[in-house]
């Protein structure tokens, strides 16, 4: 069994596409985080919902992403950049699991903001793990970008 897990949350498919590209080159198991209540598909309404959740520190209940991560040594964690931080479903995942001794690799998609606080927020929640440099993609990732990044962090490609 490959000991790599790729976990992500994606509302508009950008982060999902990046997760699938990472999975293609790592052979890792992929899990989509699904909250018990979906966000609005209207961007402005979703933005208001998310801003409110982040401000309150709200972590939604997950209907996917609760399974054990004990069998995985390397965990890629993907999120859209929402108001300079993680999407609330990703924070729920981080708070539900123990990452002690694991290698955690962040990735995000954004509309121009890069990682902002995302890497720091993941490092804070995974303080007993090794955090490798992540990748932040504006829009859609090209396969070469993902391969180059994986080689840079010395991840052995499939």
Automatic annotation (TrEMBL):
Residues 4-153 form the Flavodoxin-like domain. InterPro entries: Flavodoxin/NO_synth (IPR008254), Flavoprotein-like_sf (IPR029039). Pfam families: Flavodoxin_4. It comes from the Bacteria. It comes from Clostridium tanneri. This is Flavodoxin.
